[in-house]
Design brief:
Elements: H1 2-38, E1 51-54, E2 63-65, E3 70-72, E4 74-77, E5 83-86, E6 92-94, E7 100-103, E8 108-115, E9 121-128, E10 135-136, E11 140-143, E12 148-153, E13 160-166, E14 179-184, E15 187-192, E16 203-211, E17 217-224
């Protein structure tokens, strides 16, 4: 009986030691996690589900802003402090600690990224919209004869490109075709060489002019009436 009592006592002592060791391990793990969080690290690794950017912008539906305008991004969730960055500094800059974005004079898109104190991240897409190029003269023209239209830009960088979209596939651009387009600095010349035929009906030409520096755009619509033959 005495031996049985002594054996039971030893087992309880051993279990007591094991329980104490387990308690020490739990306390140690808790202290380590707490210290990692205070140092700005996530002991379980960063995730992307705990912080969001307001306003929300996706690649298919970005946040839009005018040139030279400003916008403040904020966060929903996450652990302060947070840090902001931008992928394309040509179109704008963002203040690292406040999320204030200021657009430049260049149109384009970029990705805004925020990182919080425990490494969680979120992104948003932003687009700086192009301005409308100012073109001297009317932007809607009807013609019933071959003629030359000159678009002179009074805004932009004077370094432009031009393209023409025709509403009739058989009414085409080219030296031996129905119309031609030429660009010289800030002057775009569209020459109607041949009127559309009766079967082609009336043709709508949309002349689009793009500033190669700032990304601004302008357009002129020219209706070319068929010659009735």
């Amino acid at each position: 009986m005495f031996n049985l009592f002594k054996s039971s006592k030893e087992r309880f002592k051993n279990k007591g030691r094991e329980g104490f060791l387990i308690l020490l391990l739990i306390v140690g793990a808790f202290v380590a996690c707490q210290g990692a969080q205070e140092d700005g690290n996530n002991p379980f690794g960063p995730s992307t589900s705990n912080i969001r950017i307001i306003p929300v912008g996706t690649t298919t539906n970005p946040v839009q802003i005018a040139k030279a305008a400003a916008l403040t991004f904020t966060t929903l969730g996450g652990t302060a402090p947070v840090s902001w960055s931008i992928s394309n500094t040509t179109i704008g800059a963002i203040v690292t600690d406040t999320g204030v974005f200021t657009a430049t004079a260049f149109a384009g898109t970029a990705t805004i990224t925020v990182v919080d104190a425990v490494g969680d991240t979120a992104t948003a897409a932003i687009e700086v919209l192009p301005a409308l190029l100012v073109i001297a003269g009317p932007n809607i023209i009807d013609t019933q004869a071959a003629f030359t239209y000159t678009a002179t830009l009074t805004s932009g960088s004077a370094l432009v490109t031009a393209s023409v979209a025709s509403s009739v596939a058989t009414y085409t651009e080219g030296a031996a075709a129905d119309f031609t387009v030429a660009v010289a600095a800030n002057v775009v010349t569209l020459t109607i060489v041949d009127l559309p035929e009766l079967l082609q009906a009336d043709v709508t030409l949309t002349l689009t002019i793009s500033d190669t520096v700032g990304g601004d755009v302008g357009a002129v619509v020219i209706s070319v009436l068929n010659d009735g033959t």
